Amino acid sequence: MSRIFPLLVLAFFLSVPLWLTDQYYLHTLVVCGIFMLAAMSLNLLLGYTGQLSLGHVAFFGIGAYVSALTSLGFNVSIFGYQITHEPWPPVIGVVLGGAAAGLCGYLIGKLAFRVRGAYFVIVTVSFAEVTRLIALNWIELTNGPLALPGIPPLTLGFEPIGYATLWSKGANYYVVLTFIVITYIIIKRLIDSPYGRAMIALRENEILATSVGISVTRYLVLAAVFAGTIAGVSGTLYAHYIQIIDPMIFMFLNTVTMVIMVITGGKGTLAGPVVGGLIFGVAPVILRNYVGPEVQWILYGALMILIVFVLPEGIVPAIERWFSRATAKSAELAMEPGKGARS
């Protein structure tokens, strides 16, 4: 059953564009999926290493800007040297955006993981603010507050068979879903490996983990690189789907959204960011049909507080615990004399 259930869930989400005719709701699911992907990357740091990063949106924005500039081209002067870049295919931009965010994850990890607690949070927040200010003030490259419009949509295909440009919401939905599935598999393989077990050991007891030879900096930086790369890729998908970005992409609310998705879904679980992302990505849209803007945010906050208060470990751990108890109880009843035969 544990192997069949994920396949049933995947089959359901694959069928969504076939019966969901409202393009607005499909657009909501695409954006929700992109932020769900970013939340999965944050879960690597917050859930599996125990490090709270409040500047995670910086990797998201870096990926978006790198991919956009790669696809649009630019002409900028740096230290008196004129650098001109001709537009490249968007797929290359996705790769470069993820790589640039991963590199930043490595550099920030080497620096930030030398400190802990509130100091680490301050470093990550400062990094996000610096990237926002660069995007806002380097007008020659980023166009500043005027935004970068006209970002081309993703184009898939190969030279012999031709190319397909992803204009429709349904096509973008399947691309985002594919990235979510691939990322889920990659994170699962990482967590099940010795590297993942070392990360979890550092989360549970850093002093004890260090005493048995686990390098704190090595494994935390590895987690930062993976998290930064995945967040950067999610940013590239956002840029090519929305087709316009500005420095507001670095706003703190986006980081808060990722943290909410991870905490409410269940940090340190593979499915937690997916469940939390689905609930808090779709809930505002559903509430919009019944109440005004002010009441929407009140109910949104109340739902979050209720989940954290009633299920402090998150939704997914609570469901797993309930399922384990139900399975154990059924096994006990089946083992009692006479009851297994009557049932």
Question: Can you walk through the features of this model?
Answer:
The chain is mostly helical and 343 residues long. The chain has one domain. The protein has helices at residues 4-19, 23-46, 57-72, 90-112, 118-137, 139-142, 169-192, 194-204, 206-211, 216-242, 252-265, 272-288, 293-310, 315-335, 339-342; strands at 74-78, 81-85, 148-149, 155-158, 162-165, 244-245. Strands 1-2 form a two-stranded antiparallel sheet. The longest helix has 27 residues, at 216-242. The protein is globular. The mean pLDDT is 86.
Distance between the termini: 20 Å
Q: What portion of residues is helical?
A: over 70%
The biggest beta sheet, please? 2 strands, antiparallel
Total domains = 1
Structural class: mainly alpha
User: Which residue ranges are poorly predicted, with pLDDT under 50 across at least 5 consecutive positions?
Assistant: none
Q: Tally the helices.
A: 15
Q: Tally of extended strands?
A: 6
